[in-house]
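> @MW can you paste both from yesterday?
MW: sure, first one:
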Amino acid sequence: MVSAARMDRVRASEEGAARLRAELAEVGVVLPSLRVDPLTVASGGSYPLVDLGRCNLDTALRLTAVLYEARRGTGPAAGAEASPGDVLRARVRELNREGRLP
């Protein structure tokens, strides 16, 4: 039988993965393989690992751009005027939310 504490840790890992997925989606990055690692769930360690999975080059470059902008403080969240790239990313996110892009 699985202890309540163990189930709480698994649930916390699942919630963490879901929050990460949602935050990445807000900046236009989708990691299709993001999940809680089933091997660490089964192993009974302190907390299951969140597996970021694999992604294609386009996704890796988008993630790199988002991290770069965040580090430099040049993204829209930093209060800077939106660049054409920021405007385009915002539009793509909007269309993704509407389900109009594959």
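MW: second:
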Amino acid sequence: MKDKEFKQQAVDEFKIIGGNDTGDLIRRIISRLMTKSLQREFIVDGLRGNRKLKHTEVWSTIISAAKNSPDSKGATDKKMEKHIRDYLRHAKDKKSITEDEPTQCI
């Protein structure tokens, strides 16, 4: 996602996904961005042999979309980070029917 125009299109698409709250919105964005098997490879800070998500273009896309969504008004960066951290922490427990496909395609 190095192309700024593509990133902005992704942010615009993801911010209208909707959700019941900030956590639900972030879960829905991640499930569209990453397959279950890819989610299991990442952790926010890249500890314990996992890949680091924080400070990547994917991270900034998730945060930008959540900040600009009407479903997460007033959410702080810290709150959004907590939701991402919790979602990825539990990704190892989740099994998808087809490992190589996102749960929902856009």
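> thanks! The mean pLDDT is 84.
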